[in-house]
Amino acid sequence: MNQSGPAGQHTVRRHNSALVLNTIATADGLSRASVAARTGLTKATVSSLVDRMITAGLVVDGGPEHRVGRGRRGTALSLSPTGPHGLGVEIGVDTLSCALVDLTGRVRVSWTLEVEPRGRTVEEGLSQVADLVGLAQAEAARLGVSVGGVGVAVPGLVESSTGLLRSAPNLGWRDVPLHTELRARTGVTDRPLLVGNEANLAGLAELWFGGREDRRDFVHVSGEIGIGAGLVVSGELFPGVRGFGGEIGHLSVDPAGPPCSCGGRGCLERLAGRAAVLAAAGVPAEPEGGGGDGMADLLGRLRDHDAAALTAVTDAGRWLGIAMADVINLVDIPTVVLGGTYARLEPWLRSTLLAELDRRVVSSGWAPIAVEPSVLGSRAAVQGAAGWVVRGILDDPEPFLVGPPT
Amino acid sequence: MNQSGPAGQHTVRRHNSALVLNTIATADGLSRASVAARTGLTKATVSSLVDRMITAGLVVDGGPEHRVGRGRRGTALSLSPTGPHGLGVEIGVDTLSCALVDLTGRVRVSWTLEVEPRGRTVEEGLSQVADLVGLAQAEAARLGVSVGGVGVAVPGLVESSTGLLRSAPNLGWRDVPLHTELRARTGVTDRPLLVGNEANLAGLAELWFGGREDRRDFVHVSGEIGIGAGLVVSGELFPGVRGFGGEIGHLSVDPAGPPCSCGGRGCLERLAGRAAVLAAAGVPAEPEGGGGDGMADLLGRLRDHDAAALTAVTDAGRWLGIAMADVINLVDIPTVVLGGTYARLEPWLRSTLLAELDRRVVSSGWAPIAVEPSVLGSRAAVQGAAGWVVRGILDDPEPFLVGPPT
Question: What would be one Pfam family of this protein (chains A, B) (predicted)?
Answer without folding.
Answer: ROK
